[in-house]
Amino acid sequence: MGESKKQVAVLGLGRMGAALAGALLGAGHDVVVWNRSPLKAGPLLDRGARLAATPAEVASADVVLSCLSTYDTQQPVLAAASPKVLVNLTSGTPAEARSTALWASSAGIEYVDGVIMAVPQGIGTPAAQILYGGSSAAFAAQRDVLAVLGEPVFLGEDAGLAALYDLALLGIMWSTMAGYLHALALVGTEGVAPSVFTPMALSWLSAVGGFLPGIGSQVVSGDYSTDVSALDINAAGLGLLVETSRAQGISASVPAALRELFDRAVASGHGAHAIASVIEEIW
Ligand SMILES: NC(=O)c1ccc[n+]([C@@H]2O[C@H](COP(=O)([O-])OP(=O)(O)OC[C@H]3O[C@@H](n4cnc5c(N)ncnc54)[C@H](OP(=O)(O)O)[C@@H]3O)[C@@H](O)[C@H]2O)c1
Asked: Which atom number of ligand 1 is nearest to the Cα of residue 119?
């Protein structure tokens, strides 16, 4: 690593924190770790990490990464650590990120807020996208360290933006997974195994993904005209899905929530419009 070797501290050695520290060790950085339960540090110490007995012992590190379960659990640890440069990778709300940025500023700490769009097993690979906001100077100065963890994407000086993107993207993930689980339950009522259905679901998801840029453009323009598929047809289809789910003896809670939303948009006069018009019932 030569001259770019840095002393990097990692606060929190849960599933994600341990993966972050492991990737940094693999890249040759001088890694110091702290965790409430110090025994979890064992495998990292075997690989050359040093154990801080208290958060205060990481204060002199070039950069401190924090990855605890929540902001509430994190704040006393950060206050004790008093880092020079803090990269906060604990998940939270935009408001929590912004108030932590304010706290950091008042304490003279350079602050970058990050969210990890990956699982621990993906850390250290280019497939791990990590979104950042906050101090652009601190981000630029620590880019070499952050690039070890995954693909770094800087969103801007607003420290709350990464958390906003995180929740928006996770919302897509959760609704997709809920839709998939509902589909498995529905075809499962007729004995169709996930292994048979999933390849079709994947191909369908890829086609659905292709609709997103067009939907986004319509949201921007406010022109909801369509020669493809009107909202009332889709709302009726959702009604069929709710009815069939109940008839097959499974919960209709996932499609029923969507039907309620689509029906409201139809009642507001968007029946002949494209699906993009549903956003008028959301914002
Ligand atoms: N795992 C993922 O796939 C993933 C993906 C993206 C983002 N994240 C985010 O990364 C963060 C950590 O997730 P994780 O999966 O690593 O969770 P985890 O395995 O449950 O680890 C939680 C960490 O928080 C520490 N902690 C909890 N309560 C504490 C307290 N009161 N005081 C001090 N330390 C405390 C734990 O210490 P002990 O070891 O002593 O319990 C541990 O280091 C979360 O914000 C999560 O949303 C995780």
From this structure: 3
